[in-house]
Write a structure and sequence with these properties.
- With about 325 residues, the protein is α/β, with parallel strands linked by helices.
- It folds into two domains: about 5-225, P-loop containing nucleotide triphosphate hydrolases (Rossmann fold, 3-Layer(aba) Sandwich); about 230-295, Alpha-Beta Plaits, CATH 3.30.70.
- The chain is about 35% helix and about 25% strand.
- The chain contains eleven helices and 14 strands.
- A six-stranded mixed beta sheet has the order 6-7-8-3-9-10, with helices on both faces. Strands 2-1-4-5 form a four-stranded antiparallel beta sheet, covered by helices on one side.
- Strand 4 (about 60-65) and strand 5 (about 65-70) form a beta hairpin.
- The structure holds adenosine-5'-diphosphate and magnesium ion.
- Adenosine-5'-diphosphate binds near residues 38, 42, 46 and 316.
- Magnesium ion binds near residues 44, 45 and 161.
- Keywords: Antibiotic resistance, ATP-binding, Cell membrane, Membrane, Nucleotide-binding, Translocase, Transport.
- This is ATP-binding cassette domain-containing protein.
- It is a peripheral membrane protein.
- InterPro entries: AAA+_ATPase, ABC_transporter-like_ATP-bd, ABC_transporter-like_CS, ABC_transporter_ATP-binding, DrrA, DrrA1/2-like_C, P-loop_NTPase.
Length: about 325
Amino acid sequence: MDEYAVSAEGLEKRYGDKRALDGFDLAVRQGTVHGLLGPNGAGKTTAVRALATLLRFDGGRARVAGADVRRDPRQVRRRIGLTGQYAAVDEVLTGRQNLEMFGRLFHLGGRRAALRATELLAQFDLVDAGDKGVGTYSGGMRRRLDLAASMILAPDVLFLDEPTTGLDPRSRGEVWDAVRRLVAGGTTVLLTTQYLEEADRLASRITVIDQGRAIADDTPDGLKNRVGGDRIEVVAREAADLPAIAKTVARVADTDPTTDEPERRVHAPVTDRVAALTEVARTLQDERIPVEDIGLRRPSLDDVFLRLTGHGTQTEEAA
Ligand SMILES: Nc1ncnc2c1ncn2[C@@H]1O[C@H](COP(=O)(O)OP(=O)(O)O)[C@@H](O)[C@H]1O
Ligand SMILES: [Mg+2]
């Protein structure tokens, strides 16, 4: 068996003059969650659709679940699942009926389809909701049902294209749990996301994509370290207090704090985030220095981009 469940070398996809994929490389280890992180328009969906045989690519090579994507697309299709940003489930049917319907689409036969539906409802924590109409489901429940539907035939490799975009934090957590359970069951997951935090929570490795090309491939910690990790941030009420605030922050920070005068903001990287926050808040209060805001900031996708490319995330709209 291959060490990699997904590998791509130099993938190219053009739409007219637009290079949606421009020499894209990827290697996803068996049995892991691999994050494909990038802003809107970076090429994530194009990459996933090309790897899932739904889109012909113009150049390069790719293997998925042990088969060559270009030469053996049928083989690939038999071994993968794909979940898009929008669920393809029927609103009127119950969760169970939807899963049974998908099962029959995959030629499972009535009894096996019903059995599989029961298993999947349990696996995705939808037992109570299973017999209610999908129209009554929350966003998180719908995404979980969508995940369950893509698992009818327990694929070797599952592509999840922005599975939590638009979900509230609680539903997002539920989807994350479902993804973890899938991987515990042996499935390899390629997950696209615009959230560094999501990739950090789920993935053991992250590829950052920009303009159709991989610009970094690293562990979540490696990536965060390059960006400088967590930061403490204090916004002063009075510009005159900035030096005193910088002095206080310096006592807990890993490097000299940065003072952003126009924003009246002092920030610095910290290792023990909660201790740093507590210490700075207490000292400022003791010294009666008024602050507008104080908090901890985790690095965002934008921070990653700034560090890797020298510019922020340029989405289509902004470019
Ligand atoms: N069918 C298409 N026709 C023309 N351009 C497309 C098409 N699909 C995607 N693109 C362009 O290719 C680039 C990558 O798109 P996409 O893969 O959807 O990015 P992402 O999923 O990361 O947001 C974008 O510039 C997008 O506008
Ligand atoms: Mg997309």
